[in-house]
Amino acid sequence: MAMQWPTRDDYLSAIQNPQNCFDDPELKSGVTAKDKFGLPFPSSGQFAVVFQLFVHTRSFGVRFFTSPVTDQQERYGKLGQHFAGFSHPALVRFSYLSQGIRVRGQKYPLVRMEWIPGEQLHSFVGARLARPTEIGQLAAQWHGRQLRRWQLSRHAGPGCPPGGAGQTEYKDTCREVHFGVI
Question: What is the pLDDT of residues 107-134, one digit of tens each?
């Protein structure tokens, strides 16, 4: 019988007590970013959920998976090896912990990465719908970065997900963020 992976809500429940759900000493000492109700604030996608964790003067994103990927550990290992020593402003450092979080008595993998503050694309665009000039400028900036993104992806090596992986920062400018290695 296949292992049932935790849901977003399972992770939300577990991460409320970092001292109990993590074995990593640095993550154990963390405090999660909270919403207006005092609960950890997740960013969810189709296959994973990410929480922000404050650890002393640093801030991490911790990514938890909601479904299995058979070659996940190998993929992150290859990405880490490939990007070790590679410096680029679009890369964030990360580490893959195969037994990173305890949920319902079972251990599951996680990816710990630098937290890059920024506004998510849907929020950025939604707040500027009445200002089409700004949306046009963002679109032009995004288009201009595609060549640089393609150049970066040429160096991605084996195991890099198509189109890259990461989060995007939007302030007055746009910055795509991809994984590097911690």
Answer: 999 999 988 877 777 787 888 889 888 8
Q: What is the pTM of this model?
A: 0.72
Closest to 48 in 3D by CA, of 162, 152, 167, 160:
167
DSSP string, the chain: -PPPPPPHHHHHHHTT-HHHHB-SHHHHT-EE-B-TTSSB-EEE-SSEEEEEEEETTEEEEEEEESS--TTHHHHHHHHHHHHTT---TTEE-EEEEEEEEEETTEEEEEEEEE------HHHHHHTTTT-HHHHHHHHHHHHHHHHHHHHHHHT--TTPPTT--S-EEESSSEEE-EE---
Note the CATH number of domain 8-114: 3.30.200.20
Spatial separation of the C-alpha atoms in residues 131 and 117, rounded to whole Å: 23
Residues of the chain within CATH 3.30.200.20 domain(s) are: 8-114
Strands 58-65 and 48-55, sheet pairing: antiparallel
Q: Are 125 and 135 in contact (CB under 8 A)?
A: yes
